[in-house]
Amino acid sequence: MTARKLYGLAYHAELICDGWSLPCSETPMQTARATLGVKQLPRSVKDKAVRRKHIKAEVMRLCRAMGWEPANDDEADALCVWNDACKQFDNAKLRFAF
After folding, report:
1. CA-to-CA distance for 23 and 5, rounded, in angstroms?
2. Torsion of CA 42, 57, 81, 91, to 10 degrees
3. What pTM, to 2 d.p., does this model score?
4. 63: which of 68, 80, 81, 85 fits an S-S bond (Cβ 3.0–4.6 Å)?
5. How many CB atoms lie within 10 A of CB 83?
6. Cα separation of 17 and 49, whole Å?
7. DSSP letters for the chain
8. 23 vs 21: CA distance, rounded Å
């Protein structure tokens, strides 16, 4: 059920972007975070909870350093994706859309 809903969401996002003549692409979250400058912990740190906590804290810190004020780590992740899209595509066209 979840996969079906996600495919539907992707379809609608692509449909709307196409209607507005906006670029649309998929970016892995790790790539979006790297664009902002998030550094991963060394691979020697195996605990997933520790790794996740470090990454989320780093994303929040870097977002605040950019002057953004995310209320939580989900908003910070969304800002990472937005930042990555602005770097990939024409900034003026992205600002015009919203």
Report:
1. 22
2. -110
3. 0.73
4. 68
5. 19
6. 36
7. -HHHHHHHHHHHHHHHHHHTT-------HHHHHHHHTPPPPPTT---HHHHHHHHHHHHHHHHHHTT---SSHHHHHHHHHHHHHHHHS-HHHHHHH-
8. 7
**Closest by alpha carbon to 60, among 78, 46, 35?**
78
| Encoded amino acid at 64, one letter | R
* Cα distance between residue 84 and residue 10, in whole Å: 18
Tokens 């910070």 found at:
76
19-63 pLDDT tens trace:
998 888 888 899 999 988 998 888 888 898 999 999 999 999 999
Q: Does residue 84 carry a pLDDT above 50?
A: yes
Provide the residue ranges of all domains of the chain, joining segments of one domain with +: 26-97
Structural tokens at position 36: 């902002």
Span between the terminal Cα atoms of the chain, in Å: 31
Half-sphere exposure of 13 (CA within 13 A, CB side): 10
